[in-house]
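ok so I'm stuck.
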Amino acid sequence: MDNDKGKVKEIEPLLRKAGLDEDEVSVFLATLQLGSKPASVISKKAHVGRSLTYQILRNLSARGLIIEVTKNGISQFSTCTPEDFTSKLATQIEEMKSVVTQLSVILPTLMGTAPSSATKVEFWRGDHALMGMWDKYLQHPNTAISGFFDYSLRWPANRGAEAQAWDKKFSMKRAELGIAMRVICNRSSGSDEAWKTRSKFLREMKVIENFNIPIAVLIHSSSVMITCNADQVFGVVIRDLDVSKGFQQVFDSAWERLLDYTIAG
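replied:
not stuck anymore, here's the structure
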């Protein structure tokens, strides 16, 4: 039994490196240990909410990492074979590499720049990877970050307490280090809450009306991060001075034309 627990502990960081976030890892390992079971049983073993467990199982099933079968009208879930699992991951890694290669060519071209030989493109996936990318901004005190995003989509509610707690700590640390945020965002409850604490957390906010921003674009002095915080959080970072300047010019042009974010009362 202790040996099995030790093996599970060894698997957890490997699954995270493979792109699964914390809840996905918990659900996958619970399914691995239980065998073919309904989502309700897996939910209890994983200590993840039932609705979120079902959503994760469906997402992992769509990626070929979980097998779903129906028995007596009830969906049951099990993990695929180790050979299929590693094969699926290898395929996804190759697909990610292809996407990165295409983005590294297309995005700079759209911005009117060409990637230099020093250009570095990173593709990442999962909540912990996103936290790591944001944390890198803390290495540059007394600078500024420009961004397009909707605060309500930055950390969706179903991400759990860990992501929410990390977000607050990051904002406090960023402000302590004098790293200002200039954000162009659409109206939402999340953006309203961010506006209320704008002074405390060194935020300036402009509003873009009647428009939804389903992704986040973060611009720093020599890098651009594009992230999608949907059911499967993922993104790309382009570390290139010319690309960063191009995006910054687009941001500054929009910033000058937009009104300050305000809320009633």
